[in-house]
Amino acid sequence: MVICPPKRPYDAIDTLIKALTPLGEKIHIVARKRIAWGTREKSYVYLVIQGEVSVLRISDGLLLGTTSEPHVLGFTEMFCPIRSNLIRAETNSILIRVDAALVVPEIERLHLWRAVAELATYHTTYMVYRDMQLVNQRTPPVIYQYLQEMDQLPEERKYQINILNYIQERSGLSRSSILNVVSTLKKHKYIDYERGGYQLKVNNLPV
């Protein structure tokens, strides 16, 4: 069974970006660069304006989520700074970094707590969705889910993304177990891909 991800709160994200942009500084992040949520003295909220970024767990590098659309990250770390994850740019990206000390007064002034709540709820629901994909699941269904996810990516991104790397980073499965399933699917023409594991095309996955 393919699990559908939660619906993004586009209006809330757009509202928060418009409200917080004047308070921050624009930063350019090159592909694969990692950035922290802040320093010992301060925390930041990041507005993703352009590019593709992921959130990674520090302890093992597991990729928790990726966005290639305008987004707002950092509220959780602002309120509960456990510093257990970080941001990584997947492509050259443009972010706006906002000092968290400036964020709450502006949210209060503009009465934007509903937008913050909608965004926080989305992030919480996304983690539940992610756990449903992985926890207590057999290996093939987990791989099928990520293959479906990859198949929805823009064509230009499929040229850049390796199937094994994509699934392993997000699932923690071994490369050999992923390769066994993916090779079998290609052999039986359920999927197709180019040499090196790029340009995935899903034809029809087994039930």
Describe the structure.
The chain is of the alpha+beta class and about 210 residues long. About 45% of the residues lie in helices and about 25% in strands. It has helices spanning about 10-20, 75-80, 100-110, 115-135, 140-150, 155-160, 165-170, 175-185; strands at about 25-30, 35, 45-50, 55, 65, 70-75, 85-90, 95-100, 190-195, 200. The strands form three sheets. A four-stranded antiparallel beta sheet has the order 1-8-3-6. Helix 1 (about 10-20) packs across helix 4 (about 115-135). The longest helix has 22 residues, at about 115-135. It is elongated, with a radius of gyration of 18 Å. The model has no long low-confidence stretch (mean pLDDT about 90).
Furnish the topology, listing elements before pairings.
Layout: H1 10-20, E1 25-29, E2 34-35, E3 44-50, E4 53-57, E5 63-67, E6 71-73, H2 75-79, E7 85-89, E8 93-99, H3 100-110, H4 113-134, H5 139-151, H6 155-158, H7 163-171, H8 175-187, E9 191-194, E10 198-202
Antiparallel strand pairs: 1-8, 2-7, 3-6, 3-8, 4-5, 4-7, 9-10
Helix pairs in contact: 1-4, 5-7
